UniProtKB/TrEMBL annotation:
Enzyme class per UniProt: transferase
The species this protein was found in: Phytohabitans rumicis
Name of this protein: Branched-chain-amino-acid aminotransferase
Similarity comment: Belongs to the class-IV pyridoxal-phosphate-dependent aminotransferase family.
Lineage: Bacteria, Bacillati, Actinomycetota, Actinomycetes, Micromonosporales
Superkingdom in the source lineage: Bacteria
Annotated signal sequence range: none
């Protein structure tokens, strides 16, 4: 019984927005996820009532009862996408409809109320409109949008909550790679897995991230930047990184990426890369890739490049893979040509510098 596809937002502008001078100082070097805009969007849900009380208001702490269900049983999901400053002074977003659909797919897996896709899109428009001064204008920056939803019902019984709070916040972000794009080193987690068949691997839920932190800490201990997970059943096939999908590029020009088997998050960047590669005549296979195969092909030179992809970093070259048995290196361990060319094509569409034959770019302002 969710509400209609159209909600009226009550707009209460922040009475004390950050001054233009202070905003400029904050945005000079925003980093990732450190600074936030003046506003947030919130919508409440209750069983029998649907979605109600949609607001655009000053970003502020959310009062929470200690018995709120999310604090105990982790019914929480989120999304991440970016808004870009367009050449003509406007603002665009990249494939927000795909995020809206995935948000509801995650909600369904976590037994949460679905949010009408149009309402999800409306919230993105609302925050961009009111916080448009926070959309960075520089070429390698963007406004990161973080919609999320959690069980707000005050109840300790174990069952799907009957009340939810949807929140949207926004954060100006700089280039993910300060000082140029350099390949990362991955640690192959031996002890931990990210997702098992039948689990929540395909849902964008906070719990998946909580469970990945120990493995990420292990990666850092081994001198690596990121962790890569193997499948939970055979501990053999490559799943993905903690928050990025992975692609392999072979010497005959073909690409491979693990299939969406339910244990992998269906990345929108992943899907966009597949589309762009195929449009350029490249073969992309969605198939399981084992860690032994990865090592053998890297050592024989058949495997030329490997990269990870996701909204935050777009496309990240992978240079080294480390396991307890030693490490192996991709190609010449530098960013590969195919990787960088795909990255360029994708970023050019996202930033309106190339034509967009797929209807991916969504105009906001
Ligand atoms: C969000 C996410 C990705 C990347 O998805 P995009 O839609 O490309 O940003 C990949 N893996 C995990 C686990 C994620 O949470």
């Amino acid at each position: 019984m969710s509400g209609g596809d159209k909600l009226d937002f009550e707009i209460r502008p922040n009475p004390q927005p950050v001054s233009a001078a202070e905003r400029a100082a904050l945005m000079a070097n925003p980093g990732f996820g450190r600074i936030f805009t003046d506003h947030m969007v919130t919508i409440r849900y209750a069983d029998g009532k649907g979605w109600y009380d949609a607001r655009v208001e000053a970003r502020a702490p959310i009062p929470m009862d200690p018995a709120s269900a999310v604090l105990h049983y982790a019914q929480e999901i989120f999304e991440g996408l970016k808004a870009y400053h367009a050449a003509d002074g406007g603002v665009t977003m990249f494939r927000p409809d795909a995020n809206a659909r995935r948000f509801n797919a995650s909600a369904e897996r976590m037994s949460m109320a679905p949010l009408p896709e149009q309402v999800f899109l409306d919230t993105l428009h609302q925050i961009i409109e009111i916080d448009r001064e926070w959309v960075p204008t520089s070429d390698d920056s963007s406004l990161y949008l973080r919609p999320f939803m959690f069980a707000s019902e005050v109840f300790l019984g174990v069952r799907p909550a009957q009340e939810y709070l949807y929140v949207l916040i926004a954060s100006p972000v700089g280039s993910y790679f300060s000082g140029g794009i350099k390949p990362v080193a991955l640690w192959v987690s031996q002890e931990y897995t990210r997702a098992a068949p039948g689990g929540t691997g395909a849902a964008k839920c906070g719990g998946n991230y909580a469970a990945s932190l120990a493995a990420q800490a292990e990666a850092i201990e081994h001198g690596c930047d990121q962790v890569i997970f193997l499948d939970a059943v055979q501990r053999k096939y490559v799943d993905e990184l903690g928050g990025m999908n992975v692609f392999f590029v072979y010497d005959d020009g073909t690409l491979a990426t693990p299939p969406l088997s339910g244990t992998i998050l269906p990345g929108i960047t992943r899907e966009s890369v597949i589309t762009l590669a195929r449009a350029a005549g490249q073969t992309v296979e969605e198939r399981p890739v084992s860690i032994e195969e990865w090592r053998a092909d890297a050592e024989s030179g058949r495997l030329r490049e490997v990269f990870a992809c996701g909204t935050a970093a777009v496309i990240t070259p992978i240079g080294t893979v480390r396991t307890p048995d030693g490490e192996f290196v991709m190609g010449d361990a530098g960013p590969g040509e195919v990787t960088m060319s795909l990255r360029q094509r994708l970023v050019d569409i996202q930033r309106g510098r190339a034509t967009d034959p797929y209807g991916w770019v969504h105009r906001v302002l």
